[in-house]
Amino acid sequence: MLRRSASILSAALAAVVALTTLTACGSGDSQGAADDKAPLEIWVRKPPGSNTEKTHQQLAAKFTELTGVPAHVTALFDDFETKLQQAAAQKKLPDLIVNDTAQLGTLVKQGLVREVDRPGTKGGDQLIPASWDAAKGADGKYYGVPFSAQTFGLFVRKDWREKLGLAQPTSWDELDALATAFTTRDPDGNGKADTYGYVVPGSTKRGYLDWYFSSFLWSAGGDYFAKDGKTPAIGDGSSVAAAQRLKDQFCTAKTVVPGAATAETTQAHPLFETGKGGIYFTGPYNMARFDKSLGKDRYEVIALPAGPGGRSVSLAEGENAYLMAGSKNRTGQQRYAEFLVSPEGQTIGMAGDTDGNVVRLPVNKGMDLAAVRKDQRWLVFDKVYREAGRYVPVVKEWTPFRQASAEALNGMVADCGSDPKAVLGKLAGTFAAELTKQGVGS
Q: Which residues form the signal peptide (predicted)?
């Protein structure tokens, strides 16, 4: 979301002073003596008054009922991170926050969170092993407890596909052929050439195009870095092949909805639901929206077929429970995080088939999603996450890499005379420089 740069700068500078104090005093001491009965202040990144806030309130109430420890939830959405910085500057950090997995690197760098003992976390061994990757810092230590996961699937206009007599795609070639058919064969039957195959959020803002591209990169056998994590692999052959395929969709087949290069997700969603494009790689959170705007029977959700790399890989995201530095009630922090990942906590968080869900996909491997939700489409995403989900690389700060990648890819698809090999070769150089900046080198 947009924030005023001046506010960020002033908050960040103030936070530095506060965080120095937090570090010097040690956790617990900066807010008084340790007290395992002290009330817990919990912040969640949800719209105030929303059903998702109500679900978090239910979680807090159940925790208090079970433990006797008071827990108060504050829902914040706009400028969440800025308000957290302000709280740090005032030495009034909440005890725990539930926020995006992508925020981990920043929170660790700023010293706002404390380390989590993975083996010592009750129920931690019952979590899907991959979910812990979202809580691991660049130093190999853990700074959060996984709470909710999500991954992505192909939303396809089923009515268009069936009208054209085509089967569900089982390979990338079949997927591209379906996109071509949606573009050239008038699937909505209005006699106009006004439909396209792919809906792509191709904006550089917040690195959207890279966010979209990552699943295709990995499925093509490409990667951002070599296995050592110290050498860029974004310019290697498989990575270049994935980029070439993306460019071909924009420039050769012309199967991408016009305007995609500047579209954020807020502009991309309507392109699918209003019938401009028929294939959209997106998350399960859009099902409720599209059911209302488009109609549940007019589209289907399928897993991304295996790519040239021999398998299907899908970007995994979600939320962690972060234990904040300086809490008086470290025991309560730990117990709350453990409750969130328990079967009871995960069930409450899933909120059935309602829009109050704060657990999109459970991270507790013992959970039977079908027993909680009747909408079987969730099982597609659950299977993809468990079998093919992959989080972004573990580096100190992922944002600079994602942004650089989005800008390079965006420039490539916007210029049909560009050379993907040269573009990604230059990007690899940018990656190498950023790795060095972050203290990593080959």
A: 1-26
CA-based angle 192:158:389, to the nearest 5? 120
CA dihedral over 196, 201, 203, 204, signed as positive or negative: negative
Contacts of 407 (CB under 8 A, 6+ apart): 204
Average of pLDDT values for 29-55? 88
The closest alpha carbon to 68, from 112, 91, 32, 36, belongs to 36
What residue spans of 324-376 are helical by DSSP H?
330-340, 343-350, 369-372
Write out pLDDT tens, residues 72-94.
999 999 889 899 999 999 999 99
DSSP 8-state class, residue 136: B
| Structural domains in the chain plus CATH codes | 25-150+316-390 (3.40.190.10), 153-314+397-437 (3.40.190.10)
> How far apart, in Å, are the Cα atoms of 38 and each of 68, 71, 74, 230, 331?
10, 9, 17, 44, 10
CB contact at 8 A, 368 and 386:
no
H or E element at residue 305:
none
Residues of the chain above pLDDT 90, percent:
86
Within 122-259, strands assigned E span 145-150, 153-156, 196-199
Judge whether 265 and 192 are in contact, CB under 8 Å. Answer: no
Q: Which pairs with CB-CB distance under 8 Å and at least 24 residues apart come from 15-24?
A: 15/85, 15/86, 15/88, 15/89, 15/110, 17/89, 18/88, 18/89, 18/90, 18/91, 19/88, 19/110, 19/111, 19/112, 19/325, 21/91, 22/88, 22/91, 22/93, 22/111, 22/325, 22/326, 23/111, 23/325
> What are 277's two structure tokens?
């494009």
Cα separation, 40 vs 335, whole angstroms = 11
* Residue from 333, 401, 402, 8 nearest 143 by CA: 333
| Residue that has been written with the tokens 């396809």 in this structure | 156
Contacts of 110 (CB under 8 A, 6+ apart): 15, 19, 85, 88
Q: Is the pLDDT of residue 18 over 60?
A: no
**CA angle in degrees (0–180, nearest 5) for 403-404-408:** 115
Q: Do the Cβ atoms of 216 and 246 come closer than 8 Å?
A: yes
386: tokens are: 């468990």
Helix axes 51-67, 343-350, angle to 10 degrees: 160
Count CB atoms within 10 A of the CB of residue 278: 30
User: What is the pLDDT at residue 28?
Assistant: 38
